[in-house]
């Protein structure tokens, strides 16, 4: 297996994001946090993940600033994992993955969950990439530019 560079040495933002939050368990933990799961035992029960894996992923997510560890909101001796602003900004990524999964990974009439707007009760509009004027963009409409360190 090829040895990977550290995330900080990789110039690609996608590669860095995958290194930080891209494994299955990290994304599932974050997904459950959007459903107000906050305690280790709740994550473990809902996900069925081994405790050592959960502890490792939560530790990493705290270290990179996705979660803060706070005293339990009910005053008990437990700690809670609370999404930070940085963590809450992952929401569109999770929604985009959910929408892709809904569209391509289920047969018609197969049991699944759907994310609804609490106010209207309707499914969310599909996430789309748009330019600064609101026009839809596809992969062929975009290009990458390398920005050298210290340059803007």
UniProtKB/TrEMBL annotation:
The keyword Nucleotide-binding does not apply. Keywords: DNA-binding, Transcription, Transcription regulation. One of its GO terms (molecular function) is DNA binding. It holds the Pfam family HxlR. Transmembrane segments: none annotated. InterPro entries: HTH_HxlR, WH-like_DNA-bd_sf, WH_DNA-bd_sf. This is HxlR family transcriptional regulator. It comes from the Bacteria. The keyword DNA-binding applies. Residues 12-109 form the HTH hxlR-type domain.
